[in-house]
Write a structure and sequence with these properties.
The chain contains five helices and five strands; from the N terminus they run βαβαβαβαβα. It is α/β, with parallel strands linked by helices. It has a five-stranded parallel beta sheet with strand order 2-1-3-4-5, sandwiched between helices.
Length: about 120
Amino acid sequence: MAVPVTVVDDSKISRKMVIRALPPQWNIELTQAENGEEALAACRDGKAEVMFLDLTMPVMDGYQVLEQLQKEQFNTFVVVISADIQPKAQERVKKLGAIAFIKKPVKTLDIENVLHEYGIV
């Protein structure tokens, strides 16, 4: 059965890079979102069992998405993918429920390691 996956980034190029880095053998149903509001809509529609989330976006940023996911008690595995690799940012996203933080540019091995660690694939 395909896993519903949402890739969230305001940059189309960044979304494509993340999508290309997903494990090729992973059976997924892919949704893309350009901002946090679209990401939350995907969650509400059951399209985000796993979410790859950028932090810096217009409309609603990644931190706000994580806060809302907690409020609405979604059971979504969130992997933050960001160029902001400051320890405080990494600490904050973990406190907000993200399972991992991967720095851009993302590599397939980074994603595979997280997915295996959490038993997602």
